[in-house]
Fold:
Amino acid sequence: MKDSYVFYKDKLQGEYKDVFDQVEMYVNCENIDELTREDRLGSLLDMLLSAQESGRPVKKVVGDSIEDFCKMFC
Structure:
């Protein structure tokens, strides 16, 4: 059974958490089935945790526009 991203998102801090929360809110407003939503948010969480751990800026993950990233991500 696949673990839910919800159990791990509290490991994000600062701007990484802010970006994740913004994308999560956007994704939850879209008409995406639960399995796909879970998969995409889990992938985003992995990317952001990796960036956070290596000290890579959030913009290296999502680019300059969170709105554009959300549209592309969905």
